[in-house]
Amino acid sequence: MVRFFYFHRSMISRSVILHIPSWFPTDEDPFAGDFIQRHMQAIQGIQPILSVQFLKTNTVSAIQIMLYAEAEVPYIEVLIPKKTTLPFLQKWIAQRQQTKAIEALVAFLRTKDVKVLAIHSHVLHPAANIAKTLKKRLNCPWVHTEHWSALTKENGEFERKSGVFRRFYKSITKEVNAFTFVSNYLQKSFNTHFSNVAPQYIISNSVNTSLFHLKPKQSKEKPFRFLHVSSLGEAKQAEAIIEAFERINGMDAELWIVGGSEEKNIQLRKKHPKETLQFLPAQAYENIALLMQDADVLVLNSLYETQSCVAIEALCCGVPVIAPAVAALPEFLNPSNSILFAEGGIESALNSAFEIIPQLNPENISKAASQKYSYTNIGKEFKRVYSELGLI
After folding, report:
1. Which residue from 177, 295, 323, 388 has the fewest beta carbons nearer than 10 Å?
2. What is the model's pLDDT at position 172?
3. pLDDT the model gives residue 145
4. How buried is 389 (Cβ within 10 angstroms: 0-12 exposed, 13-18 middle, 19+ buried)?
5. What confidence tens digit (pLDDT) does each residue in 269-292 have?
6. Considering the entire predicted model, what is its pTM?
7. 185 to 146, 204, 213: CA distances (angstroms)
8. Alpha carbon 52 to chain centroid distance?
């Protein structure tokens, strides 16, 4: 049994690119897959799209499909009931439920008379598995965009997966008609695991430049402000930034750490009580933009980055970046917009900021970044891919 629901009964386009994100915002995590969301927002500026979210839940007893046509990015929510069963049957039952859900989605699209021009999946697992089946059912091309740091040698998560998992994805990616990657670094990482003959393109992450843009600094009297924005996960090495700042802080400077949970922030405040340190939990994008516009420099200390959304957001605000010269970061950070440091060099980089950062030109930094990472430009880049595949 399948139940169809039509939330906001507005018409949706009759010809769409159907997007399958591996991650998407939820009530529990409103920032999940935000980089995918921004790519879709850029694409819908040049081509009608429809996103599909598959959710396994205990709240329903039958597959339910709900259309949200008036959302910022129109989407279909497919709710799949979780089935309690013996552990050794769980994977088989889950795959069977997913197949049923995909068949229900195809039927739903037919009832709405929607023509799917292509499937566009985002992040290998689990979206590629769903996209493979949809390509077969809908008989259309398949574009895949990759952001996944698990494919990098520094992260190594993909190599730690089982042989069955890796062989499965190596097999199904051979059916993809075109790939896009957010950096050359990620493309090379991907190609160490997969052998594909489909065309490959580099298309950056995108920035909402209506929020992240240059704004004149309000006061010259405030301390020099370092800003770090991240999830505060282990790979971001935020505490190493704090410790380096505490060692150099004889200057008129402050460090703002933004991200993570309130609980994590309380722990950091207790451990680092200096008044020159400020801690804020995760913020809405509007607040992040304001914090960036009021900062002198963004500081990163990541072990790896497939690109770094927060770095390109800062650049669009005309704010330079201090970052390690690792992974994809040197592809778009250079002496005109940043200070790159070698391993172990963060303290020296922070010290040099007081002299180097004032010499950089915020207007030039913002203009170059806004032109490159805006929704308009990234939309054009995807349009080129779609055009070369004969989709639009």
Report:
1. 388
2. 93
3. 98
4. middle
5. 888 988 899 999 999 999 999 999
6. 0.93
7. 11, 12, 27
8. 17
